């Protein structure tokens, strides 16, 4: 580049200039000189700068004081994030949007860069060096700020590294202690300086330059979550749960990613520990409890809470009047029943038994008893408890007196413990008791076993010669009939099932209580049972048929009285209960 | 009245009054009578089992029976020993063998009796109810027999339908499938009537038996007092 250098003041003037622009001296004698763009020429425009790189921080400080460049404090406080792209964009004059706001110092740099070929690389180096210097200069101070901040949080919440989730504890790790467990894809770059914690925070917040971030997606979110987690920790535990649920609901690979990176970078001894904590976090999130409250439970909870609130208020005391009234009613009814039965029993008890009451199953039983051959062999099964002895005596006595012959062969079998004694009592009340020859087969605890064994007594192949068996004393030709005295449906059915299936030719007759009779009638209808008499009503009919005076007639009026009173009591009780229910529905709480 | 009759009559009277005192409230006399009954029953049952079962069929033959019988009796003896040994927690597992034997034997006998003693005969009875020869066997009762057969069939089918808890195959787009098929739903309603009648008959029977037992107790007390006061 050719210029005219003033001989007086040395100012460089254009070739076409006649006078010096600075001192006004004539330039006619001045020859044109070829001048290369010297480095020191920039000193005229950048007075604060010095050629040495050490002076660049001073330049930037001057620019910062003029407000042209944001401070690192502003970035660190979140007001103005420091982005390396800004340092690149100051030389990018192609961006049209930024031309309006370009500061004056940048315009000067750009103009020098357009005029001087080497200015870009040189200034870039200087700017980079200045930025590094600024970072180093402010790093120590900011490090102390962040360290004190984290320490204060740890002190307030008592957070320890071992207790925090693995994905979050990594970024909380104190860099001063060297616990670098963060996912540092460019860990070598970070670890070379004392401000590696700043790089971690930058990565965590996703503010690193693009050239430094290789996997920003998961880690950036993790960093945000860490800060949110810390904030939530200060605010309360409820927000912690919220963030935890957020982790689970989004089902991001964050935890898994973190776990893998932690395993890659952590010490071998810590691998199990970190895995355990991560798995615990995952399992805790997966097994999120679902609270289901029904309406009744909510009502109970409301009542309970109301009770707790009104703890000092007087509570309704359970009034004993209701229980005492029930007890009184029960007592009155019991006394009336006993009095009525007593009057019926002992005053004018010559009642007339119901005539023509006999039904088909009664007649069949009576016919079988009348048609037994001489010296008939009978089996009597006693399968009832002592409480029903009286009823079964009333039912069985007329039949037994007609069926059992003085010279007959009687075998008795008990399938209840009380049957052993009750059989003797039952047979002892018969007229022909003294001349009876009774073959006691003993007691079988399980009716099915006894029935099965009795029914199979004719099968000698199954008998063991030397073993004692009650069935060995049974008559070899079988029985002319079997009478089953039972107080329950189950006991009678067991005997009928086994005997009717295994000895179908032997007549089965049932002498039952009133509670067992109705359910055994189908066995009579199917032909498995020859005859049935059950309860006092049937016994009264049989007694009336055979025209023999017995105890049934003495009790028949009392039975009628008691039945009438019980029916009346049931009806009255049902009406009262309905009335009570109606009152309760009308006046009770909703 | 002999002394024996007097003593046992008084005991019976007192125990009857103690049990009836439950009408007033649960009291010590009722509890005494109940505990006495339970204790006597347990003791009586133990003595009956020893006298009627263990001694004549196990212990007696082991002591005085022939050697062949003793060898045979080793089988139940070992089973009894295993059952007793199972009461010790350390050997609780050895009791499974005798229990399995008992369960299997009971199931075989019970199921065999239920099938051949109840199911097949009752099914045959329902079918025989529609035998035309039976309808015309009794002159003038033909329609009654037909009605009886119809009611029997309806009661059987409807009662079985009531205990049918199946539902339609789960096919999409068929609405609410939680309900039973309409046929079973209708039949189950009818079955409820039959079940109600059956349970009512059972209740009436229980009612009647309890009333007869009460009449017996009152009759016993009246007779005893009459004889005691009358000097009979």
Query: Tally of extended strands of chain A?
Result: 9
User: How large, in whole angstroms, is the Cα Rg of chain B?
Assistant: 29 Å
The count of strands of chain B amounts to 0
By secondary-structure content and strand pairing, the structural class of chain A works out as alpha/beta
N-to-C span of chain B: 6 Å
Give the uncertain stretches of chain A in residue-range form: 38-54, 68-98, 159-194, 208-223, 237-268
The succession of helices and strands of chain B, N to C, reads: HHHHHHH
Per DSSP, the total helix count of chain B is 7
The largest sheet of chain A, given as strand count, sense and whether it forms a barrel, is:
6 strands, parallel
List the helices and strands and how they pair.
The complex is a heterodimer of chains A (about 600) and B (about 230).
Chain A: E1 2-5, E2 12-13, E3 32-34, H1 42-45, H2 56-65, H3 72-76, H4 84-89, H5 104-115, H6 119-157, H7 166-172, H8 187-191, H9 196-205, H10 216-235, H11 237-250, H12 254-265, H13 271-286, H14 295-309, H15 320-346, H16 360-370, E4 377-383, H17 389-403, E5 409-414, H18 419-428, E6 437-443, H19 447-455, E7 481-486, H20 489-502, E8 508-512, H21 517-525, E9 531-534, H22 535-546, H23 551-587
Parallel strand pairs in A: 4-5, 4-7, 5-6, 7-8, 8-9
Antiparallel strand pairs in A: 1-2, 1-3
Helix pairs in contact in A: 2-6, 7-10, 9-10, 10-11, 12-13, 15-23, 16-17, 17-22, 19-20, 20-21, 22-23
Chain B: H1 3-20, H2 28-64, H3 67-85, H4 96-128, H5 132-135, H6 142-162, H7 182-230
Q: How is this structure best described in words?
A:
- The complex is a heterodimer of chains A (590) and B (232).
- With 590 residues, chain A is of the alpha/beta class.
- Chain A is 54% helix and 7% strand.
- Chain A has helices spanning 42-45, 56-65, 72-76, 84-89, 104-115, 119-157, 166-172, 187-191, 196-205, 216-235, 237-250, 254-265, 271-286, 295-309, 320-346, 360-370, 389-403, 419-428, 447-455, 489-502, 517-525, 535-546, 551-587, and strands at residues 2-5, 12-13, 32-34, 377-383, 409-414, 437-443, 481-486, 508-512, 531-534.
- Chain A starts with a strand and ends with a helix.
- Chain B is mostly helical and 232 residues long.
- Chain B contains 7 helices and no strands.
- Chain B has helices at residues 3-20, 28-64, 67-85, 96-128, 132-135, 142-162, 182-230.
- The longest helix of chain B is centred in the C-terminal third of the chain and has 49 residues, at 182-230.
- The model of chain B has no long low-confidence stretch (mean pLDDT 88).
- The interface between A and B is large, with 64 and 53 residues.
């Amino acid at each position: 580049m050719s210029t005219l250098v003033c001989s007086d003041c040395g100012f460089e003037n254009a070739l076409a200039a006649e006078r010096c622009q600075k001192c006004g001296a004539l330039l006619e004698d001045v020859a044109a000189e070829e001048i290369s763009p010297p480095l020191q020429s920039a000193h005229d425009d950048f007075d604060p700068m010095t050629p040495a790189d050490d002076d660049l921080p001073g330049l930037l400080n001057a620019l910062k004081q003029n407000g042209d460049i944001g401070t690192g404090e502003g970035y660190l406080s979140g007001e103005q994030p420091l982005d390396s792209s800004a340092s690149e964009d100051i030389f990018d004059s192609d961006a049209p949007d930024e031309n309006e706001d370009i500061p004056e110092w940048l315009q000067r740099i750009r103009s020098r860069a357009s005029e001087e070929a080497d200015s870009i690389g040189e200034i870039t180096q200087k700017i980079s060096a200045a930025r590094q210097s600024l970072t180093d200069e402010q790093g120590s101070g900011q490090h102390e700020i962040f360290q004190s901040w984290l320490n204060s949080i740890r002190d307030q919440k008592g957070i320890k590294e071992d207790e925090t989730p693995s994905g979050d504890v990594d970024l909380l790790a104190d860099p001063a202690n060297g616990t670098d467990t963060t996912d540092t894809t460019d860990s070598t770059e970070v670890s070379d300086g004392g401000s590696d914690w700043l790089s971690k925070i930058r990565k965590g917040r996703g503010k690193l330059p693009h050239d430094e971030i290789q996997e920003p997606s998961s880690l950036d979110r993790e960093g945000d979550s860490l800060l949110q987690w810390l904030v939530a920790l200060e605010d309360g535990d409820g927000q912690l749960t919220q963030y935890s649920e957020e982790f689970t609901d989004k089902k991001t690979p964050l935890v898994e990613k973190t776990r893998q990176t932690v395993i890659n970078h952590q010490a071998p001894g810590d691998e199990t520990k970190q895995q355990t904590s991560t798995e615990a976090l995952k399992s805790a999130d997966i097994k999120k409890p679902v609270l289901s409250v029904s309406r009744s439970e909510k009502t109970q909870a409301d009542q309970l809470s109301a009770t707790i609130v009104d703890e000092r208020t007087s509570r309704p005391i359970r009034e004993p009047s209701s229980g005492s009234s029930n007890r009184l009613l029960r007592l009155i009814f019991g006394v009336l029943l006993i009095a009525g039965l007593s009057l019926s029993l002992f005053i004018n008890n010559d009642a007339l038994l119901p005539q023509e009451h006999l039904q088909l199953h009664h007649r069949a039983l009576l016919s079988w008893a009348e048609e037994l051959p001489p010296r008939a062999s009978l089996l009597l099964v006693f399968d009832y408890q002592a409480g029903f002895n009286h009823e079964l005596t009333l039912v069985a006595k007329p039949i037994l007196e007609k069926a059992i012959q003085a010279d007959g062969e009687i075998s008795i079998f008990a399938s209840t413990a009380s049957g052993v004694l009750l059989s003797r009592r039952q047979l002892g009340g018969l007229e022909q008791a003294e001349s009876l020859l009774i073959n006691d087969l003993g007691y079988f605890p399980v009716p099915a076993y006894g029935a099965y064994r009795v029914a199979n007594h004719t099968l000698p192949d199954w008998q063991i010669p030397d073993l004692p068996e009650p069935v060995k004393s049974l008559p070899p030709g079988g029985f002319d009939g079997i009478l089953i005295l039972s107080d329950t449906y189950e006991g009678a059915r067991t005997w009928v099932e086994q005997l009717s299936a295994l000895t179908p030719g032997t007549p089965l007759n049932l002498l039952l209580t009133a509670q067992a009779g109705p359910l055994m009638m189908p066995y009579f209808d199917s032909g498995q049972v020859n005859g049935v008499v059950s309860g006092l009503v049937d016994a009264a009919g049989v007694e009336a048929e055979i025209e023999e005076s017995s105890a049934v007639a003495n009790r028949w009026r009392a039975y009628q009285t008691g039945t009438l009173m019980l029916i009346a009591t049931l009806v009255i009780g049902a009406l009262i209960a309905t009335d009570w229910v109606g009152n309760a529905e009308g006046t009770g709480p909703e | 009245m002999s002394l024996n009759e007097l003593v046992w009559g008084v005991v019976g009277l007192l125990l009857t009054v103690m049990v009836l005192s439950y009408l007033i409230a649960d009291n010590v006399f009722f509890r005494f009578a109940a505990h006495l009954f339970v204790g006597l029953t347990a003791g009586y049952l133990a003595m009956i089992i020893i006298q009627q079962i263990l001694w004549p069929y196990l212990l007696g033959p082991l002591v005085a029976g022939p050697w062949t019988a003793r060898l045979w009796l080793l089988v139940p003896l070992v089973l009894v020993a295993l059952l007793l040994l199972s009461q010790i927690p350390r050997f609780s597992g050895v009791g499974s063998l005798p229990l399995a034997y008992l369960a299997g034997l009971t199931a075989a006998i019970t199921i065999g009796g239920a099938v051949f003693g109840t199911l097949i005969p009752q099914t045959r009875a329902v079918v025989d109810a529609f035998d035309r020869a039976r309808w015309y066997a009794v002159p003038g009762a033909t329609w009654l027999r037909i009605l009886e057969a119809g009611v029997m069939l309806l009661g059987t089918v409807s009662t079985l339908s009531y205990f049918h808890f199946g539902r339609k195959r789960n096919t999409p787009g068929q609405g609410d499938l939680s309900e039973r098929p309409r046929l079973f739903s209708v039949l189950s309603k009818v079955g409820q009537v039959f079940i109600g009648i059956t349970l009512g008959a059972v209740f009436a029977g229980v009612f009647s038996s309890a009333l007869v037992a009460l009449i017996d107790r009152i009759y016993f007390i009246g007779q005893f007092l009459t004889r005691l006061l009358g000097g009979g």
